[in-house]
């Protein structure tokens, strides 16, 4: 996600469009990115640390973006 | 001097940059993103364009090109490096320059002749100008908003690392009207406007951009 202090022009555009469609009560919109990484084997602490490194090195730019890493089992989607 | 211009997949202004280098009296050397070879150049230009289609973030993928390892190493030794537009974005993603460039605050692509003030003529790319010179250089970008936290901005201002500032009308929401910055050492410069498009009277808004390329010579013989 763009850091709170960083202007998010895309989020602003979406925020502007919502009332035009009759959706009210939204006070702010921020637009970010979501990456789904599929990994081999068990998600150990070492694997998670590696994913954190990927997030920090390539997937995000720490100067302007924050990130969080979340583990989901494949069955989360299949079973839904 | 031998001045290299790197072509990335999606670079647009590499040929214009090579041409500008030649017009300024240097030997222009084409460099390739996939090579670990700087071909013995004395200075490097990272040109404008949309490398890797601006996927992920502008410059984020180019930053990990093989040639960038060599560019970063050369910059560390003090070699002059100029990043123009997409090249500026690549330098920020490489952490060779502070800050980042985000989508224009008005969300539209902007293409126009831009008035600028040269704020720092102590870099190898700006020594042909006088400090305070006002010039007109072409600007064209969709993600040219320069941002950094307040502490970084204060430091850039305090240390004289702001190289150029937008005059009249800020075209993209850049904080403190910053159009270009340099690193602490002063050898790496990033600039959002395109001096390589302002080197001949036949085209464009004049020749105000030529100084970015002739500066290298004047420094060498200084």
Write a structural description.
The complex is a heterodimer of chains A (80) and B (222). With 80 residues, chain A is mainly α. Helix content of chain A is 40%, strand content 0%. Chain A has two domains: 1-32, no CATH class; 35-80, no CATH class. Chain A has helices at 9-20, 45-59, 74-78. Chain B is an alpha/beta fold and 222 residues long. Chain B has a single domain (2-220), classed as Rossmann fold. The chains are: A mainly alpha (80), B alpha/beta (222).
Task: Return the domain count of chain B.
Answer: 1
Round the Cα radius of gyration of chain A to an integer and report it: 17 Å
Overall residue-averaged pLDDT value of chain B:
96
Q: What's the β-strand tally of chain A?
A: 0
Keywords (chain B): ATP-binding, Cytoplasm, Glutamine amidotransferase, Hydrolase, Ligase, Nucleotide-binding, Purine biosynthesis
Main location (chain B): cytoplasm
GO molecular function (chain B): ATP binding; glutaminase activity; phosphoribosylformylglycinamidine synthase activity
Pfam families (chain B): GATase_5
């Amino acid at each position: 996600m763009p850091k709170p202090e960083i202007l998010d022009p895309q989020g602003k555009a979406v925020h502007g469009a919502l009332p035009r469609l009759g959706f009210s009560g939204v006070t702010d919109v921020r637009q970010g990115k979501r990456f789904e990484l599929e990994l081999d084997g068990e998600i150990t602490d070492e694997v998670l640390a590696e994913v954190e490194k990927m997030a920090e090195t390539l997937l995000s730019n720490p100067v302007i973006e924050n990130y969080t890493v979340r583990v989901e089992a494949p069955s989360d989607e299949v079973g839904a | 001097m031998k001045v290299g211009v790197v072509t990335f997949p999606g670079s647009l202004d590499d040929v214009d940059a090579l041409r500008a280098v030649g017009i300024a009296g240097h030997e222009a050397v084409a460099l390739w993103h996939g090579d670990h070879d700087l071909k013995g150049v004395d200075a490097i230009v990272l040109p404008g364009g949309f490398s890797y289609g601006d996927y992920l973030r502008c410059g984020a993928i180019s930053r990990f090109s093989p040639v960038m390892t060599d560019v970063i190493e050369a910059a560390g030794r003090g070699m002059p490096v100029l990043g123009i537009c997409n090249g500026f974005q690549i330098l920020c993603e490489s952490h060779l320059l502070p800050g980042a460039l985000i989508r224009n605050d008005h969300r539209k692509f902007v293409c126009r002749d831009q008035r600028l003030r040269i704020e720092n003529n102590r870099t190898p790319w700006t020594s042909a100008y006088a400090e305070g010179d006002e010039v007109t250089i072409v600007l064209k970008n969709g993600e040219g908003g320069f941002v950094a936290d307040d502490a970084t901005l204060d430091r850039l201002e305090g240390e004289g690392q702001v190289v150029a500032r937008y005059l009249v009308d800020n075209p993209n929401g850049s904080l403190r009207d910053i159009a270009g910055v340099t690193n602490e050492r002063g050898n790496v410069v990033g600039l959002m406007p395109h001096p390589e498009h302002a080197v001949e009277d036949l085209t464009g808004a004049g020749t105000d951009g030529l100084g970015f390329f002739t500066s290298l010579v004047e420094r060498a013989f200084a």
